[in-house]
């Protein structure tokens, strides 16, 4: 058992703390928000994530997990201190290290000789040197250990990762960090800090590129009369391509892709390399928002001015409550700018959002709607009573931004159906 401090109990920090506790380490996690701290000490997760509360309650019951309100308290006596604080995107696309540096200044004076500071937050290339400079302690090592969690599957990804990446100029420190995860069966990549930090950005940028590519293929499929559903099946059987992320939709978003793609573009700029491929990835994604808006406008009869649009799904993906950089929210903003009235339903979103009326169920969202737009792939939307939907709506148009619904069944009920690339 090692004593581990986790600084920050956001999405990454909480998954990290719960996982390390489950692996048998003694974890003290720092959370400065008092409301969240109360929930965590009661074993309740402020984040919607399957299996996370089970791990929290397990750790609290075993005494291997505790929560405090001060980073310095968490770091006292710790062998490892994981930095899991936010790194928001600046206006120029660069990651803001303000919170990382503040956390290092707070824990630096209390760390014991031989401790290891582990950067788990997504940070720019060169951040390990920044952390070391701010730490200003030659007796404490700095290691990069980027996370590769998918929201909605964070617990599974933590316990069954595709790989564990560790970057450090101190080989012994890297091996010690690897030892924390020795019970996990996964490929281990030990490298230098710059490579570890680049792996994280390159991975997310590649996945965003894959989504932009398949959305462009969907647009082409519509133009030539192909069905993108069949196209991606045929592509996905090629093991060099793979089926993952070959799924057309309203565009990519969330807390990682937009931030990481732009950050990698900024990193390239700083290094003097014109990574113009990423410009195209971003541009295609922005165009996809407009393509979906155009479909909804067509479904509303050619104009959105005065139209009522029912929206199913506001989170950036299913099985999460996260609306950060959600494609659905971006599309809704564009609809509102064109004069549309929005009635939206999402299983995990209750509070109203700017310009959006959020209602209590999917049928209520359809009341008087001229067009229905499905923008998040919640599975429950498949199984609704579409006779009831038809009765509630003023129009009969459905824009399926996720290709989630059965198009033939909807057409038999008299709906005009538009999917993506179909």
Q: Would you write up a description of this structure?
A:
The chain is 42% helix and 14% strand. With 422 residues, it is an alpha/beta fold. Strand 12, helix 15 (386-392) and strand 13 form a beta-alpha-beta unit. Helix 1 packs across helix 3, helix 9 (193-224) packs parallel to helix 12 (276-299) and helix 11 (257-271) runs antiparallel to helix 12 (276-299). The termini are far apart. The mean pLDDT is 95.
Radius of gyration: 23 Å
Strand line-up in the sheet with most strands: 3-2-1-4-5-6
User: Residue share in helices?
Assistant: 40-55%
Number of strands: 14
Proportion of β residues?
5-15%
Largest sheet: 6 strands, parallel
The first-to-last residue Cα distance is: 54 Å
Helix and strand composition category: alpha/beta
Estimate the global geometry from the Cα principal axes: globular
Uncertain spans, ≥5 residues at pLDDT below 50? none
State the helix count: 16
- Element-level helix/strand string: EHEHHEHEHEHEHEHEHHHHEHEEHEHEHE
Rounded mean pLDDT is 95
